[in-house]
Amino acid sequence: MSILKPLPHDAAALHVSGSAQYTDDIPTPENTLHLVFGLSEIAHGRIVKTDLTDVKSASGVSCVLMAKDIPGKNDISPSPFPEPLLSDGTLNYIGQPIFICAATSHLLARRAAKLAKIEYEKKKAIITIEEAIKAKSLLEKPIVYIKGDPANTISNSEFNLSGTINIGGQEHFYLEGQAALAIPHDDGDITIHCSTQHPTEAQHKVADALKKPMNAVRVQVRRMGGGFGGKESQSNALAVACAIMANQTGKPCKMRYDRDDDMIVTGKRHDFRIDYNVGFNGKGKITGIEFKQFVRCGWSADLSLAIADRAMLHSDNAYFLSDAKITSYRLLTNTQSATAFRGFGGPQGMVGIEQVINHISQYLRKDPLTVREQNFYNNPSKRENELQTTPYHMQVKDSIIKPLVKQLKSSSNYTKRRSEIENWNNKNKFLKKGLALTPVKFGISFTLTHLNQAGALVHVYQDGSIRINHGGTEMGQGLFQKVAQVAAQEFSQPIENIKITATDTGKVPNTSATAASSGTDLNGMAVKVACEKIKLRLKSFLGKTYKLKATEIEFLNGSIYCKGTEYSFKSIIKQAYENRISLSATGFYATPEIKWDRLTGKGNPFYYFAYGAAVTEVIIDTLTGENRILRVDICHDAGKSINPAIDIGQIQGGYVQGAGWLTTEELIWNEEGKLMTHAPSTYKIPACSDRPRIFHTNLYHYEGNKKQTIYRSKAVGEPPLMLGISALMALNDAIASVGEWDRYALLDTPATPEKILFEIQKQIRGI
Most buried of the four, 116, 345, 365, 656, by CB within 10 Å? Predict the structure, then answer.
């Protein structure tokens, strides 16, 4: 049995020893050129004149390319909306690439690029959400999802409230920066080593840029040092730049961003403004709600449409909304093109409804958890409960949020601690504590239906060793280990007998991005299908050889049993090989039951939902706004976990990343559109000292996923990030204790000490 075991990450020893090889570590030939972009210094305008004479004549420079030098398409967009690799004369943000400089070293290339003389004609830039709203700067027409008659319901409700929530973006801050290496071959083909979550898309974009078929381009990825969505589309630029330069010069070309360049050039999590109007009764039950979501997309479409869609899809979180209207405005601004980030818009939608719940509870002077429980989706396992639908009309058939929260409420001693914190706050004037329990319901699947597919390749060698390849990419999340466990389980072999190989478009084609929390769901199933094909051939061979039925042949405990007689796996494989039995197979899997119309907001965009909940306790200093997370208790739904150790690691990391987004990680642009927080010195990610002092993490144990996922497991990549919302709600709770509960402590995010102090002062003064 290889599944349900807490096995270590396949590269854990390599990670901690510093021996793991990433793209920038790949040995390069002596004649490799190093690339940098020449970047725009204005946020909006056009290029009047470009003089690159000094760049070209600088020490070590071999070649300089502009848009006109690209042999094929000047487009790196992951969507139908074009996004040029190099400016065609129009400039849309500070940091937009204008030219590529190739030199004999990275340092020489950076120095040379600074020598460019570019004259600009500046235009007024649109930077903020408010400026974009005023200018009606839209990527597409507003999208509206509606269910019931919310306007009428709200107006006739016992109570109603309205408010505005501002939610900041987030820098991915993967430890390994963006990097790519292109190696040209003598037949005109090219191999790309790239730190990317989407090798097939990189292959596609390189092929288009070179005017070559996709079979002439091979993309390989062994591992990434983090991605979080930031390497889903943003890595295309480096892959294409290296490819066109290698094609031009005939030399290997390498490119990596310095941290400053990485933060200046690449996209972030979308920041939002959410306006709401909600009706409810005296128990806190929501009767009707309207959301307006204003999404800052940046200068190009990138993945913004799908991300804004998912924010709408998660506006309900774990709450049944009988009457709801959600309107989404996708705003174009002269800032970096916002892109995928863990949760893909879902976290922003969830923050919106959680703030509404807190607002209602404070207005009614009730424990926020009581109000949350009033609004939870029913547990459909109880016959008396009717199936409820989401605002996009999908039936929720698998809700376990009520029993999961009940379990966490008990294990965390929530009720007792709430009373203790109230007593503490009454006794302490300057230090105040807060407590919050928030739920997570997160839909699993790509909302673009055709992406819900995966392929795999499995080889069994004549000595019994096994080699697997699939379309998923490893970015530290443990995907490779989990999928290897699938192969080990199917063949009943020790995990040590399974060799994990780099993701390679030359082996498994037409892959989807490792995103949407679907890596194990898709690729695990594809590997299982491939293994089953080989097992079927082996059973057929053994059945004919020993005159057995298929049911009399078992793969068990590392061996193969033929009607009770034990044979070593290796001996059977050798025998099959000598009898010319194919020991290699491809596997393919497509997620069933997905049907979605994004424009009407109706259908089943998800195969299933993953659930979880977190209790966070915080303390704040009312004189400074300084705060700490004291304790976190988590209960999370991973179905029947394939690897509990990896899943718990993902849950804890997701929580910290989510809490960091909402409390410390602040992105600031000046009026000119320059990103001011573009380095570790000005952008604060959570440090070791920011971790919860007490951190209890448990998996919710039950019969597993109702859907036929790989061994009834559930995705655990994105959902845990939303557990961090409980930290924001706990800070709200602590601030509320300062005043008389007469006004809602509506914290904009990130809830920095400055913002906390500002809200405290408003509470004290009753503003």
Answer: 345
